[in-house]
Amino acid sequence: MNTLTILALSWQHILIVAILLVLLFGGKKIPELMRGVGSGIKEFKDAVKEEDKPGSEKKSSSTDNNSSSN
User: Fold this and answer.
1) Integer Cα distance of 3 and 31 in angstroms
2) Reported pTM
3) Best exposed site among 33, 44, 47, 70 by fewest CB in 10 Å?
4) In whole angstroms, what separates CA 29 from the centre of its chain?
5) Where are the bilayer-spanning segments (predicted)?
């Protein structure tokens, strides 16, 4: 039970981390970093959605190769 309380973050911890980020990167660089993180997450989600489609190109090309060899 004590290990769970060690991992808990309070608002003071989050405030300290935010202040350190501002001091390290500056106020202008942080929005650029967050935009980069956001676009990376968006591209990842799009790639996962594209891979989950039942009629994706990878699956259709593998079935075409199998049918042409028969």
Assistant:
1) 34
2) 0.47
3) 70
4) 19
5) 6-25
Task: From 28, 30, 6, select the one nearest 17 (Cα to Cα).
Answer: 30
pLDDT in tens, 16-57: 998 998 898 888 888 898 899 999 999 999 999 888 877 655
Q: Which two tokens stand for residue 24?
A: 């390290």
What are 16's two structure tokens?
């300290």
Q: What is the 3-state secondary structure (H, E, C) of 1-61?
A: CHHHHHHCCCHHHHHHHHHHHHHHHCCCHHHHHHHHHHHHHHHHHHHHHHHHCCCCHHHHH
**Cβ atoms of residues 39 and 31 within 8 Å:** no
